[in-house]
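ok trying this again, last paste got cut off
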Amino acid sequence: MKKTSVFAATVALALALPSLASAQDAGTMTLGLGLGGVMPKSDNGDILGSTGLRIGDNVRPTVTFEYFIRDNLGIEVLGAWPFQHNIHADGMGKIGTTQHLPPVISLQYHFDTGSTLTPFVGAGINYTAFFDETAKGAVAGSDLDLSDSWGVALHAGLDYKISERAALRTDVRWIDIDSDVKLDGSKIGKAEIDPWVFGVSYVMSF
């Protein structure tokens, strides 16, 4: 199934289920520990006018904190261990690596189904900070730089309640990440990363 179909199906399920009671009461806090896989879209733009750019996938530990400002409605902050990506250019092979931190703040609505399954949807803003860029291969020895990025972030997922205070979560995000690529201070293109982020986590309520 395509990544877009997975996201659409999750959102459709969440919107189709009725709200029977409060999934989370106002004032509740949750802490989630898990893994997130960042998978950039297949076409990441061009550099040097016509050379295609490809950004690799990566998986890292993640942490989320959510505070419910109203019943069912929470503000979530996503953090992660720095992701690392290989950068390839068509006809040139691997030209570099970079690390990034992509914190996201989202407003999320949790749908109570009256069962152990609680779907949710959310939207927010992402700030991606790139660092530790290293030029490789054909451009080794050059100064490679990727600019930081602001963008929207969409989120949908499903919690499976395993106790009064804990749940297992699967979720998917789409994040708008665009970064200017510079080599020795000169802009050579734009990386349109726009990844899907697939996650699994253990979520505790307080």
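PB: full thing came through this time. Confidence is low (pLDDT under 50) at residues 13-22.
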